[in-house]
Amino acid sequence: MGKISYALLFSFLFVLTLFASTPELKEKLAGLDGVTQIELLESNRYTEKYVVRITQLLDPHNPAAGTFSQRVIIGHHGFDRPTVIVTEGYGAAYALRERYQDEISGLLNANVIVVEHRYFLESTPEPLNWDYLTAENSAYDLHRVTTTFKTLYPGKWISTGISKGGQTTMLYRAYFPDDVDISVPYVGPLNRDVEDGRHEEFLRQVGTSAVREQVEKFQIEVLKRRTSLQPIFEAYCKEKELSFRLPIHEIYDYAVLEYPFAFWQWGVSANEIPSLTADDQTVFDHFIKIGGPAYFSENQSISSFFVQAARDLGYYGYDTEPFKEYLSISTSKGYLNKIMVPASAGEITFNPALYEKVYNYLSANDPKMIFIYGEYDPWSASGAPQFAGKKNQQKYILPQASHSARISNMPEDMASKVIDQLNAWLNE
């Protein structure tokens, strides 16, 4: 028999061990009610990783409405470890990547279960009926996933999500308070209307007066240069094959109005704003980079989000006052239904019941929840409220941070407090 290197032997034993461990988890997954299409995934972050489909009711209150298949990704560390459920607000294809690791799961060496939101990517029902895309129904989806996988993972559970996913974390806790032990919503809004109203005021105060003035002057410059920039804008839209429900000159206006929200949301440096004497192409390139027209185009992959925003999640409005003499539109009111909600969904009327449910739940109870926001992120204007006397509801606002606020980019002392609190709750 020939010699075999220690490295090769180690690799062989590792693969053999992994292979030997896979069937146990896969067999357990196959035994779960409603779980189908189990597929092994590569991972260098979890011991084992699978993508599965779970059959969900379109309408939890009316089984006759039918079912759809929801995509769920499982990253496994151990049956005795805590479990993080990621309440994704959009599609979850990113979680298929070999290097994917949720932040909370990584910090706590916990299992992770990523739930793709209904009506996104591979979790879209067929035929498409917008009536079943509600916050309440999405909470029932998560409830079914949690109760199903708790048969595998009986330890403590943590729900978490980012942005719309953070919003979903909040509403899930309000609908099913006992499903999880801890919730960590990142940068999640709690909007009280389809155009909430608080974001415009926030943008009038955020950051320094010098940067706010620089942002506003740039917006006005783009509007003043409409004659030279709009043809470039139109050519860009044609090249990108973007279509719109409104005339192109109105879309140009909305892109300008969107600019400050996007600027602050994503932490753009004021140094990136071109001089007001810069050439047209330089001004246009920056304008498109920050507040491009694709956001207002038809047939978007996130059209489902706009349906939810118009129906029960809420959204933000625009301050048109400083730009009135330059705009071609007389008002921006109702823009979500006019521009972004798919025509197939019809005109949607906002229902504030979700805001009231979450607000009242947080007011009347004290669940273990850590809310994380960025100081400069406009979504923090409609963030979760802080109620006096709540020991467990903790809110952290990262100084000068954007929508990308995470535990990993917190000041060291703040991050330590969050991690210590999570471990303390897990050890109770």
Structural description of this entry:
With 428 residues, this protein is of the alpha/beta class. Helix 6 runs antiparallel to helix 8 and helix 8 packs across helix 9 (280-291). It is built from 13 helices and nine strands.
Overview in brief:
The chain has 428 residues and is of the alpha/beta class. It contains 13 helices and nine strands. The longest helix has 25 residues, at 6-30.
Set out the fold topology.
Blueprint: H1 6-30, E1 35-40, E2 48-57, E3 67-76, E4 83-87, H2 103-108, E5 111-115, H3 135-149, E6 157-162, H4 164-175, E7 182-186, H5 198-203, H6 209-224, H7 226-239, H8 248-265, H9 280-291, H10 303-313, H11 335-340, H12 353-364, E8 369-374, E9 393-398, H13 412-426
Parallel strand pairs: 4-5, 4-6, 6-7, 7-8, 8-9
Antiparallel strand pairs: 1-2, 2-3, 3-5
Helix pairs in contact: 3-4, 4-12, 6-8, 7-9, 8-9
Record keyword descriptors for this entry.
alpha/beta; 13 helices; Rossmann fold; single chain; disordered N terminus; 39% helix; 2 domains; 9-stranded mixed beta sheet; 428 residues
Please tell me how large the radius of gyration is.
24 Å
Round the mean pLDDT to the nearest integer and report it: 94
The largest sheet is: 9 strands, mixed
Relevant CATH superfamily of the largest domain = Alpha/Beta hydrolase fold, catalytic domain
**What is the strand tally?**
9
Distance between the termini: 56 Å
Q: What percent of residues adopt helix (DSSP H or I)?
A: 25-40%
Give the class-level CATH name of the largest domain: Alpha Beta
Total number of helices: 13
Overall CATH architecture of the largest domain: 3-Layer(aba) Sandwich
Output the structural class: alpha/beta
Number of domains: 2
H/E element order: HEEEEHEHEHEHHHHHHHHEEH
**Overall spatial form:** globular
| Strand content bin | 5-15%
